[in-house]
Structure formats: C-alpha cells, structure tokens
Amino acid sequence: MPPDPLPATARPVLFILGPTAVGKSALALEMAERFGAALLSLDAMQVYRGADIGTGKPTAEEQARVPHGGINLVEPGERFTTADFLRHAAAFLAQCRREGRPVIAAGGTGLYFRALTRGLCEAPATPPALQAELDALPLEALRERLRRVDPSMAEPAASPLDLANPRRIARAIAVAEISGKSLLQWQLETPEPLIPVQDFTSVLLLRDLPDLRERIAARVRSMVSAGWADEVARLVTQHGLPAIRDFPAIGYGSLAIDRKEAARKLDISFPDKALSEKALHRISTQPVAPDIVEQIIIDTRHYAKRQLTWFRKESIVRQINLSRSATLNFLEWWT
User: What would the 3-class secondary structure string for 70-137 be?
Assistant: First the structure.
C-alpha cells in the first residue's frame, strides 16, 4: 500500500527541479540554510552509498550543515524502487513535520517528483527473470516489443513514457505482459499522492542551452579532477566489476572499464578485494582517457535534454532561466 498523504504544514514543500548542472543543489542548500529547512534529494542515483562524486551528492560538510534525506540508502547493485523512495520520503517528511521544519525537495529525477505529487501506481512488480531478459535487449528491440504488447505506450506523440529510456520501456513491457493491462491504465488508477497539489510549490530551473552545455562539461571535468576515477576504482574493488560496470549512473560503467585498462597497463590484477592501498592508489592516479571524459560529457548532455523534456510536461511548475534571471527572485512566493 502507498504511504498515507501527509497533513498540510505551515509552509508547503518546495520542489526545485531541473536538468543536471543547472544549479539546483547550490540554490537548495542556500535556501535551506536561510529558512532552516531540510533537504530531500530527488536524485535516483544519490541513494547509493559510495557513489558520491559522480552523482553530485552533497559533501559531508554540506550534510552537516542541513538535514538531508534521500541519500545513502542502499549499496550499489541493490534494488531500489520508486515505491522504496516513497516510503523513505514519507518517513523523512513526517519527521520534519514533527520538528516543525520546512522541506525543500531538489533534484532531477522526474519520476520521484511525479510519484510524490501524483501518487504511484500499484502495477505488479517485474519478476527477476523477466527483468534480466529485458535488460539484455537493445533499445530498438525494447521499443519493438513495446509496440507489440502495448501500442498506446509506444506511440511517441501520445505516450507519457520516455521512449529513450530503456529502463522505463522495460517496465511498461513487463506490466503489460504480466497483468494484461497497459501501464497507462494502471497509472490512471493511481492512489492519492503523498504531497497533494495544495501542499507544495515548485520551480523548474533552466539555463540557455550554450550555458547549460558548458556547465555540464565543466561539471564532469571537475568531478574527474576531484577523484571520481578513484571512487570508481574503490567501488569496483568492493562490489565487483559487473556491479559497477552496469551501475545506472552516467560515467560509472565507462570509468570502471577505464580503471581496469589502467590496471592492465600497470600489470596489476584488478579488481581484487585483497588489493593493497598502494596498488589501488597507483590505479586511481592514472589519467582518465580523454575520450572517456568526452563521452561522459556527451551522455550527460543527452540526459539533461531528456530531463528537460520530462519536466516541461509538468504544467504545475514555474520556470526560471538562471542565465537571465537573478537566482533568488522567486523566494517571495515561498514565504
């Protein structure tokens, strides 16, 4: 069963939404400190422990300044669903309500925003065997299978589905095959949301495209300079190469392969849980191949485009272009 809707609070939940690198986190942290609020991450990749640099997770110092929810909930490789996120969010919001603390929810996972504010449909879970079968299919094969089992969800002009996202397509296929009913029909029968429309306000942060593209490139390069490759090498050592190679966050898989190649050149067995700190350091400090960095930048830009497409379908959000507007102009309507 879905969590019960929360009672109204003195100040509505503020959603700060937008594509990666637009400036959501910095603004949310600034506002949380200004208003004594807690922060709920709406980033499906920040739930994984140890995946910090590459997901843009708040630093330990930032987490000490402001209470955070939605981060460090499971290990890489563990299953974490939107329903799991809603259960965590319900407990986090309830705690904040008891403390009289307002909440800012910030991030770029549109499905989390939609589930919190529209409810989560109770379609059946995907069996592991079917999930593995669908995970092995390329994108075009998934689209073709969706056209066979649920044509309404496969039509680009009418489908609410992100048809560039293989995980979302696989979910729609699974629901149709298991239940004999379209995912869209399940969604129409969705229970009441955790945060109804009268209890939140929202803003979509935007930037001019050249500005956003440059910020994405700078962000990726900054992450690499901050030790992202070292983070990935350590995660591979802890969880194994397959788990990190298949990790859904952008960049982790390609960096895992890059670190394995770096270890090969150094004649170091990798991954190996018995690897010494000295050997791991040698692997981690090898430069990342420039083509890997450039591909991560390209993939991140494509992801940002998909995020914008999703959020622009949400009619309830206000839009602010940070390339043209002062950051804090909209504070008045949250006070």
Answer: CCCCECCCCCCCHHHHHHHHHHHHHHHHHHCCCEEEEECCHHHHHHHHHCCCCCCCCCHHHHHHHHCC
The reply to whether 228 falls in a domain is yes
Do 50 and 76 sit in the same domain of this protein? yes
248 with 102, same domain: the answer is no
Q: Give residue-wise pLDDT tens across range 106-127.
A: 999 999 999 999 898 888 989 9
The predicted-structure confidence for 258-303, as pLDDT tens digits, reads as follows: 999 999 999 999 987 778 889 998 998 899 999 999 999 999 999 9
**Count of domains in the chain?**
3
pLDDT in tens, 69-100: 999 999 998 989 999 999 999 999 999 999 99
C-alpha neighbours within 13 Å on the C-beta side of residue 70? 29
Phi/psi region, residue 23 (left: phi>0; alpha: psi -120 to 50; beta: rest), is: left
Clarify whether residues 109 and 145 are in a common domain: no
One-letter amino acid at 14 equals L
| Domain membership of residue 246 as a residue range | 213-299
Sign of CA dihedral 307, 205, 319, 294: negative
